[in-house]
Design brief:
The chain has helices at residues 7-24, 59-76, 118-123; strands at 39-43, 46-53, 81-91, 95-104, 116-117. The protein is α+β, with helices and mostly antiparallel strands. The chain has one domain (7-123). Strands 1-2-4-3-5 form a five-stranded antiparallel sheet. A hairpin with a 2-residue loop joins strand 1 (39-43) and strand 2 (46-53). The chain is elongated and about 70 Å long. It starts with 6 loop residues before the first helix and ends with a helix. The relative contact order is 0.17.
């Protein structure tokens, strides 16, 4: 005897699976090393950084993850402050954003309001 799943139940199951995929894609993947996928060193204090998530992940979550990745790169490169410039966003089978990461050291940059302190970004709660 074969069981046929009603059409409404099929729609529900499909929607549920899509929802699960979206939830799973909002987990942040910590930086493993300063090279490789999504990270390109342009010079000693400048990188090109990209972060990719599911197309179901919100832009806000992607922004948080990209900022966290930039903070990790900054600290690994032994800098403390960073700025994200030259941003590019895209949406295909994945949502992604890339920025030019410019890193800075020293007390002289403390008054630059457009800089992030990498330690503060890393210390903030994760999504």
């Amino acid at each position: 005897m074969h069981h046929i799943i009603p059409f409404g139940a099929q729609i529900f199951l499909f929607s549920f699976l899509i929802l699960l995929q979206g939830c799973a894609a909002t987990r942040y993947d910590p930086l493993v090393e300063l090279q490789g996928e999504g990270i390109e060193r342009l010079n000693d204090s400048t990188f090109r950084v990209e972060y990719r998530v599911s197309p179901f992940t919100s832009q806000e979550v992607l922004d948080d993850f990209l900022r966290r990745r930039c903070a990790e790169v900054t600290l690994r490169a032994e800098y403390q402050y960073f700025a994200m410039t030259e941003r590019f966003d895209g949406l295909t089978y994945q949502r992604f954003a890339s920025v030019t990461l410019r890193m800075y050291k020293g007390q002289g940059v403390l008054n630059w309001s457009w800089l992030y302190d990498a330690r503060d970004v890393i210390g903030s709660p994760r999504n």
